[in-house]
């Protein structure tokens, strides 16, 4: 294929990538500001040029073919190279300028990121921050993100990962609840207690504990579940039961005695804990604004790091 034909296919390659990452033509069209039929025509044009089916279309979803998966991986490299080209100019100025797009989990954003964002903007007055708050992982390529934060022990392999610290999960209850219902001394005791959990996923009420060589899995139950950490904490403070929280959510409540830690000798293995990982696409020519933000977060998050 000659270079002119290849250049003409670049918009179609971008459209194909977006469909794969968004999961449907409709979702891709919303990201691209086009109609679903327009996106479909672009993908069909790319398939015709490559003489290969890239997507298997059904009435409900699109499935990437084996050939499509290979094309997608090469397409990502093309887009990453295009991003490097766009970033060269910002390198030359040596000043943090422009927009940074960031995604992070809700509770982490509220308790950890929010106090750090305005000072960053004050330090770098020519930058803009666009923070997308979601507990779901958001692909940085499909959403044109600079930085993605996760609490995890397993960073994404296709992204550069920088660990900023670690967060433990903490089991808590109010003093009044424990006085009225007794103190659990083993995870199995939780079967006789009201427990508050997210109820976002089918196994959110399955709590995993470990201590030494002992691993315990408990399917808890309770009268109240809510996928908002502060609402859940307020319910625990009111004596509604026992809940799991990231330690940064309950740190103040523990210090003030509003809640007490339950089963402190047990490790809790849940979605509420893990390493604080800052992830971003690989780039030979990283924009100054992204480098400034990364360095700023590394410095600002030092107090979060725990001694082993």
UniProtKB/TrEMBL annotation:
Recorded protein name is Transcriptional regulator, LysR family
The root-end lineage is: Bacteria, Pseudomonadati, Pseudomonadota, Gammaproteobacteria, Vibrionales
Entry's Gene Ontology molecular function annotations: DNA-binding transcription factor activity; sequence-specific DNA binding
Q: Does the keyword DNA-binding apply?
A: yes
Indicate the secretion signal residues.
none
Biological processes annotated in GO:
DNA-templated transcription
Look up and give the organism this protein is from.
Vibrio hangzhouensis
Keyword line: DNA-binding, Transcription, Transcription regulation
InterPro entries documented for this protein: LysR-type_TF_proteobact-type, LysR_HTH_N, LysR_subst-bd, WH-like_DNA-bd_sf, WH_DNA-bd_sf
Q: Where is the HTH lysR-type domain?
A: 1-65
Q: Which family does it belong to?
A: Belongs to the LysR transcriptional regulatory family.
